[in-house]
Amino acid sequence: TAKTSWPEVVGWPAAQAVTQVGTDRPDVAIEVLPSGTSVAPGFNGERVRVFFDGTGSVAATPSVG
């Protein structure tokens, strides 16, 4: 079963989290965005968004969508 969320990467440097997500799910596009960024609504099963804080650490659990 394909992985759909990565709670373990919260607090990691964003670049390291992107590497982990890409290793687990090479079939998805990964978007890296500052926390609070406005994004278009809607689910996309081929996308994972990684939101990072002011220190460059992952601020929320990345998930498919």
TrEMBL record:
PROSITE patterns: POTATO_INHIBITOR (PS00285). Keywords: Protease inhibitor, Serine protease inhibitor. It comes from the Eukaryota. Gene3D superfamilies: Trypsin Inhibitor V, subunit A. GO terms for molecular function: serine-type endopeptidase inhibitor activity. GO terms for biological process: response to wounding. Belongs to the protease inhibitor I13 (potato type I serine protease inhibitor) family. This is Subtilisin inhibitor 1. It comes from Aegilops tauschii subsp. strangulata.
